[in-house]
Design brief:
Oligomer: heterodimer
Number of helices of chain B: 16
Radius of gyration of chain A: 31 Å
Shape of chain A: globular
Low-confidence stretches of chain B: 12-18
Radius of gyration of chain B: 23 Å
Number of strands of chain B: 0
Mean pLDDT of chain A: 89
Helix content of chain A: 25-40%
Strand order of the largest sheet of chain A: 5-4-16-15-14-6-7
Helix content of chain B: over 70%
Strand content of chain A: 15-25%
Chain lengths: 990, 463
């Protein structure tokens, strides 16, 4: 709307005007009209004066800034503006390698979803996966290669590298590739060629390593990999320090499988989950029975469990009283349940200790789980970190025995426990090349930085679990002058740098022969690209790996020897863990992840020292007090957090913080806890940390500060027995009579059901909603003031005692109440009710009185306190053209002073209705999925049409477990909750 | 002698010795005394007060400008507490205005002669208080440049009307009505005084202005007769406002769903509180003004005594309301209500709650004592405490119900920012600036009403 209108009285005048420059003020028309005025009467004067004053006032009102929409000169085939295009790819957010479907609009990816066709992972993703679409548009990414810190061209760098590699022909260069776990078979093949061609050595380094588990699996079963754990087949799960629903190994797949075993509507038996851990983790908070142990007690717990199982087999040692009373009782229950469900049980352990893992393998073997819930025939290839090789490499580097070091997807200058040793050692390497996408801590020290594509821009493949393959394809042409890491490797190998061709060739040679469905490779390739995943039917031949070899008895003896040592007085063990949002710190510059409230502590923007309530009382510490953790050669200062359920013998600190070169968002946030990995003791006598108050305070930015339900019926929890008893009962009577006339029934009645039993609290829905609905990031200070903008939040309550709490979580979004308290109180009718049951917020009409926020009993409304977009004060993803590329064009970006809230993804509802209408039918159940529903790996959120009796929502709404929050207020919410089932052992806490 | 004045003669037989007005005052002297401030430059005390008030006003203007330019985020509000200082100040100032209307209108209908010395100043205080109050709903909006959308004007967007069910909209009507009627009543009451001033002034700009404002008043009997009727009618129109305006303001809370807000007690409770705080402010202002402007002969101890009695009555009603709230919370069995009400007394804002109780329920009980009522300094302190307590009452009601409501996951603490405090100070600055200008520019005592009473008194009883 930029061309003003000129008035004309005749065609001649119009033609005459056409040549003149068009005036840009709206009085032009008036002037054109008034070209030959008669002598004006008083009436004319008044009318003209009135019009001109009004016109001047209107033209003085602000118009929107003029923006240009430039159409394509050559329209790409198959791309229609405004219509989504989806690509199947594989996630590169962590090592799990989940399948993805990426939604692109107008040529750029704006939303990441899981691939429902993936047999392993399903349609869900985790929060990190959701946030990877934003990391594509990270302003910190390098825009081209660097040589010694200065921009260079690819040809220059290639020339330098090749010159170095071929120079000095006396002896071949000693090349080392230090990389993260590479999931792709094609990439691994390429590196194998390097190994043969140039003598490259490949060291895999993971900062949080599962090397002990891999070595134990090799020793026990002869398989050099981590087993593939099948949680869906287990009816009893015992976990020792393994956050398998949050951060351990493959959380999306495990959540999906775990939830499938806890759906009372689908199967009568509910799995039982017993958890031993140091700090209250996401997984531990979901357990039916949880015991806090110190990190050094992991081995003792495993050993005690082994002894009990052995006794069941009739070959046991006498009972040892190694553990505390609560652990003993829990171990008895665990052993009973495991034995009762042998063959359908699972023990997992996240200990970084070989002997403990051997003992756990022995337990699983004795229970007959191998080949059933513990699959070593088709093991997981998701973690191949090798601690010993890394330590050896650092030593070799220090001795100058490495000539060239390639760093691919690793950042040891930050996350190696003895990072300064690595940095010193790097100085002795003549040529270091980093393939990092940004100038991180390690890349800043490298000679050459050859930035890799973001995984959304790159070709690749993955084999997360043996014989399960997936492809990765670009969803956008590379934004910057980056080059795929594999292309760089090909180039330096002297081959044409076309990894796409290499990939195709590899699949043609290795995978195409393993299928019978397609006659030509191109058909197979297209189908594989389209589906994203390929699992050949043949699989690995059954090897005789189900028997337990390896000397697990010696491991047990070693554990027994260590267990009896005494912890020094006043010292705590260091426990290092990953948070669900930040993981190992690779995504520290992602504002969505920094602002994501930790599922357990609800703290954002920083890490902290987690202490038990009894310890806090004894030392006089409250949350936010800066404490000094002193472990001899390591000293960290960071604020404390008091956590119910924390082991009183351990202090837990999350890694991934304290980065110095993450970017504008992540640098300088929190404290680097990776050095504590070197301090991790294996026995209580190695407990090394002291805690002292410094007297300083650093208030933490938590989104929830009150943890008790105060006796209110907010999150309901029942036992499986109660479910059976009530199975016949319909839940309490429907809504009471109303004075208001009922709204006329419309075609649809949208609603939602949230299964609190399936929900683990992982908070992927929070990030998905943020991505879908352009929810702004507000920063640490504003979160501290209680102004986070998330439309959906996970409320987390504790019940029971401080030292041994039970945790209940509840996703809370706008309940779209039938009798919404927010609607009658808005003076300007900015919030109204649609005919199909949605409570609508009309952004353009809102003047911001905030009565609706006050009157909402669920407190789900969010107000725009400042201008969050294009505002330097909030320099996150909405303050740059690059960052704004992630915005969803279907959803308005709200201005300052306007209220917003969950809309049940009304843009998706409208799109679904339109698509159905274009096909001449009504929307079917499952056609329309809200963002939170779509992303949930546990399928805990169900959206649907209550008017459709066949819809899944209508079935769930009638469930005996169903209730609505605060329904006694008469709000008639359209969001139903299904009570959580806690499968506590008899006599246990419920 | 018009019937109205004759009626008054009968009604106030023996008023000569009632001591309402010092008997020795002569009619001319009344005019001179009241008109003197208008004709002379103000003294140092006035300038000192004006300097402070204007500085406060400037601070407020700066804070409000910053807030409107940057966002509501400059205040201390958050996702749970959507109102705090803004609506506290709004209700506070609206409440203060009620005293003036009660004195002007209700006491007129009840023929309470003692009101004549104070009703003009009280009515002016009402106007200024309502102006101060009206600012807050405007600036508390997230997009105040669109504030006109609350007005039901015909438009081409449907037409799109406003939400007549919303208590905020009833506020719009109530405040506008209140301001309009108060302004009209106040102005009409000043017409004979403007005429007096016009006649006293020598030719010039001032005479022309007074002449314009007096609308050609000629003082004839017929004019007086019509004028009496008009005043009575306006008083009748204004009287219901004393009850209705603050009832509607209380509906902002009473019609909501929040525990602690959702109670039928609020309308009478708020009206009593409004009269209470209004009289507190009138007492404060008049004690200072009468000594600074040397008007002790007109605003006598009898007036102060009467106002103190009104404060005692309404303060007791407010204290009784506190007790009623606690009883209902305890007896009612609603656990949310119980948690909120008792949380006021023992929770994180208990300091504000107990300040409120001490100032509002305990302090006015001192006024039972005649000695206390007669002591001007004590009365002054008590009247200031009344307003402090009433401000805290609105703060406690708003913030304690908001910051801890139904779902404990959303419980937060609210802390004001300097901008909010500066805005509150600025509102006081605006109020006192206006009041100080008023006492220098307009007759702060109703000359014609005082003279009518004095004339009746000096003519003696009639048959």
């Amino acid at each position: 709307m930029s061309t003003p209108v000129t008035f004309w009285r005749s065609v001649e005048e119009l033609r005459a005007h056409a040549d003149r420059a068009v005036s840009r003020d709206c009085l032009a028309g008036l002037r054109a009209q008034g070209q030959q005025p008669e002598s004006p009467s008083r009436r004319d004067f008044l009318s003209v004066a009135g019009f001109s004053v009004a016109a001047a006032a209107i033209s003085a009102c602000s118009r929107g800034a003029e923006q240009k929409a430039i159409p394509f000169l050559n329209q790409p085939e198959g791309m229609t503006p405004g219509v989504d295009t989806w690509y199947a790819t594989t996630c590169g957010g962590c090592r799990a390698g989940c399948g993805l479907l990426v939604k692109t609009r107008d040529g750029r990816p704006i939303k990441v979803e899981g691939n429902a066709r993936s047999a392993l992972f399903g349609g869900g993703t985790c929060a990190v996966g959701q946030a990877t679409v934003l990391s594509l548009y990270d302003g910190e990414r390098l825009e081209g290669p660097l040589w010694h810190g200065r921009p260079a061209s690819w040809t220059d760098i290639d020339a330098k590298v090749e010159a170095f590699l071929s120079a000095d022909g006396a002896r071949p260069k000693r090349l080392v590739l230090l990389s993260r776990t590479l999931l792709g078979p094609a990439t691994r093949a390429l590196i194998a060629e390097w190994s043969q061609g140039r003598g490259l050595r490949h060291v895999v380094y993971e900062p949080i390593s599962l090397a002990a588990l891999r070595r134990a699996t090799l020793a026990a079963f002869g398989v050099d990999a981590i087993p593939h754990f099948r949680f869906g087949r287990a009816r009893t799960i015992v976990a020792i320090e393994a956050d398998f629903l949050g951060t351990w190994l493959s959380p999306v797949e495990f959540t999906r499988d775990y939830a499938s075993g806890r759906r009372p509507e689908e199967s009568a038996a509910i799995s039982r989950h017993i958890h031993f851990e140091s700090t209250l983790s996401l997984t531990g908070s979901n357990a039916d029975l949880r015991v806090a142990i110190a990190p050094s007690e992991q081995g003792a717990v495993a050993l005690s469990l082994l002894r009990r199982i052995a006794r069941k087999l009739g070959a046991g040692d006498p009972v040892e009283t190694l553990e505390t009373t609560s652990a003993a009782r829990a171990l008895d229950i665990a052993a009973d349940d495991l034995w009762r469900c042998r063959g359908e049980s699972l023990v997992v352990c996240g200990a970084r200790d070989f002997d403990t893992q051997m003992v756990v393998h022995a337990i699983n073997a004795l229970l007959g789980n191998i080949g059933r819930t513990v699959d070593v025939d088709r093991p997981s290839l998701q973690h191949r970190g090798d601690d010993d090789a890394m330590a050896g490499l650092v030593e070799e580097m220090r001795r100058g025995e490495v000539d060239a070091l390639l760093l691919y997807g690793v950042n040891p200058a930050y996350d190696y426990p003895r990072a300064d040793e690595f940095v010193q050692a790097m100085k002795h390497v003549p040529l270091t090349i980093s393939l990092s996408d940004r100038l991180d801590e390690t890349a800043a020290l490298a000679d050459a930085v050859c930035p890799d594509h973001h995984f959304l821009e790159a070709w690749g493949d993955a084999e997360p679990v043996a014989s399960f393959f997936s492809l990765a394809q670009p969803t956008i042409a590379p934004l910057f002058d980056t080059r795929a890491a594999q292309d760089s490797l090909l180039e330096w190998l002297g081959r044409p740098p076309d990894f796409h061709a290499y990939l195709r060739d590899h699949w043609r040679r290795t995978l195409y022969p393993r299928q019978q469905q397609f006659a030509t490779f191109d058909e197979f390739w297209d189908r594989a690209l389209h589906d994203g995943a390929f699992a050949p039917a043949d699989g690995a031949t059954a090897r005789a790996t189900r028997t337990l070899t390896g000397d697990w008895r010696r491991s047990a003896a070693r554990l027994a020897a260590r267990a009896g040592s005494v912890r020094p007085e006043g010292r705590f063990e260091a426990h290092v863990y990953e948070t669900v949002a930040i993981r190992d710190g690779a995504h520290a510059n992602n504002p969505w992840l920094q602002e994501l409230p930790d599922p357990v502590t609800k703290v954002t923007w920083g890490n902290y020292a987690v202490v038990a309530p009894s310890v806090a009382t004894r030392l006089g510490i409250t949350a936010g007090d800066v404490v000094s953790l002193d472990g001899g050669d390591i000293r960290l200062d960071l604020p404390a957090w008091v956590q119910p359920g924390q082991s009183p013998h351990a202090v837990s600190i999350a890694v991934g913080y304290g980065r110095s070169r993450a970017g504008r968002v992540g640098s300088g946030l929190g404290t680097n806890a990776f050095p504590l990995l070197a301090a991790d003791g294996r026995s209580p006598s190695q407990a090394s940390l002291t805690i002292t108050r410094t007297g300083r305070r650093e208030p933490l930015a938590a989104t929830q500060t009150h943890h008790s339900m105060e006796g209110r019926d907010i999150v309901r929890q029942i036992s499986p027995a109660a479910l059976v008893d009530d199975a016949g009962d319909r839940r309490e009577a429907d809504d009471a009579a109303s004075l208001w006339r009922a709204r006329p029934a419309a075609e649809h009645a949208w609603g939602m059901a949230v299964d609190l039993n399936a929900c683990t609290g992982c908070s992927a829905c929070v990030t998905a909603c943020q991505a879908e609905n352009n929810v702004p990031v507000v920063g640490k200070d504003e979160v501290r003031r209680g102004r986070e903008m998330h439309w959906i939040r996970i409320d987390r309550y504790y019940t029971g005692s401080e030292d041994d709490p039970a945790t209940l979580v509840q996703p809370m979004m706008c309940q779209h109440c039938g009798h919404a308290p927010c609607e009658p109180v808005c003076p300007v009718l900015a919030t109204v009710h649609s005919s199909d049951g949605l409570n609508q917020q009309v952004y353009n009409r809102c003047v911001g009185t905030r009565y609706c926020e006050n009157n909402c009993p669920y407190k789900v409304r969010r107000f725009n306190w400042f201008e969050y977009a294009s505002n330097d004060r909030f320099d996150f993803n909405m303050n740059s053209p690059l960052g704004r590329m992630v915005l969803n064009p279907d959803v308005t970006v709200r201005s300052r002073g306007v209220m917003e809230k969950c809309s049940l993804c009304v843009q998706r509802i409208q799109a679904g209705k339109l698509a159905a209408k274009q096909e001449g039918r009504t929307p079917q159940d499952g056609d329309i999925q809200t963002a939170c529903q779509q992303v949930c790996p546990a399928e805990a959120i169900v959206f649907g049409d209550l008017n459709d009796p066949a819809s899944r929502l209508a079935q769930l709404a009638k469930s005996a477990r169903g209730y609505r929050v605060l329904e006694e207020l008469g709000t008639r919410p359209n969001v139903h909750y299904l009570a959580k089932i806690r499968n506590a052992p008899d006599g246990g806490r419920s | 002698m018009t019937p109205g004045i004759a009626a008054r003669l009968h009604a106030v037989r023996g008023a000569r010795s009632s001591g309402v007005i010092d008997e020795r005052t002569r009619l001319r002297r009344i005019t001179d005394d009241v008109a003197r401030p208008l004709e002379t430059w103000p003294g140092g005390a006035w300038w000192a007060c004006f300097g402070v008030a204007f500085a406060a006003l400037s601070l407020g203007v700066g804070c409000v400008t910053y807030e409107i330019a940057t966002g509501i985020g400059t205040w201390g509000l958050n996702r749970t507490v959507g109102w705090a200082f803004d609506i506290t100040n709004f209700v506070f100032w609206v409440g203060i205005g009620h005293a003036g209307t009660l004195i002007s209108a209700i006491l007129l209908l009840f023929r309470q002669r003692w009101r004549t010395s104070i009703n003009r100043a009280a009515e002016a205080m009402t106007i200024f208080a309502v102006v101060c109050a009206a600012i807050f709903p405007l600036i508390h909006m997230g997009r105040p440049w669109l504030a006109f959308w609350v007005l039901p004007y015909p438009n081409s967007r449907g037409p799109l009307w406003v939400n007549f069910r919303s208590p905020l909209l009833w506020d719009v009507f109530a405040i506008n009505t209140y301001l309009t009627i108060s302004l009209v009543f106040w102005y009409v009451g000043m017409i004979p005084d403007f005429a007096t001033l016009r006649d006293r002034t020598a030719a010039g700009a001032r005479k022309a202005i007074y002449g314009l404002l007096s609308l050609g008043w000629n003082g004839s009997h017929r004019t007086w007769s019509r004028y009496e009727t008009l005043c009575t009618l306006l008083a009748g129109l204004a009287t219901p406002l004393v009850v209705s305006v603050h009832t509607i303001v209380s509906m902002d809370f009473a019609t909501s769903i929040l525990p602690g807000w959702h109670t039928t007690l609020f309308p009478p409770y708020f009206v009593a509180g409004a009269v209470y705080s209004g009289f507190g402010m009138v007492t404060t202002l008049l004690i200072v003004t009468r000594s600074v402007m040397h008007l002790e002969a007109y605003i006598t101890d009898r007036h102060l005594d009467a106002m103190a009695k009104v404060m005692l009555l309404t303060g007791s009603m407010v204290g009784f309301s506190y007790g009623t709230e606690f009883f209902a919370a305890w007896y009612g069995g609603n656990l949310y209500e119980f948690a909120t009400i008792f949380g006021r007394a023992v929770g994180p804002y208990a300091w504000a709650f107990w300040t409120m109780v001490a100032c509002n329920a305990a302090a006015p009980q001192l006024l039972w004592s005649r000695r206390v009522r007669a002591s001007v300094p004590v009365l002054f302190i008590l009247s200031v405490l009344v307003n402090v307590g009433m401000w805290f009452e609105r703060f406690v009601i708003i913030v304690t119900s908001l910051h801890r409501s139904y779902l404990p996951s959303s419980w937060v603490m609210y802390r004001p920012t300097l901008i909010e405090v500066g805005t509150l100070i600025g509102s006081f600055g605006l109020f006192f600036t206006c009041f100080l200008l008023f006492i220098q520019a307009l007759p702060m005592i109703a000359i014609w009403e005082i003279k009518a009473d004095a004339a009746i008194g000096s003519e003696g009883a009639h048959g």
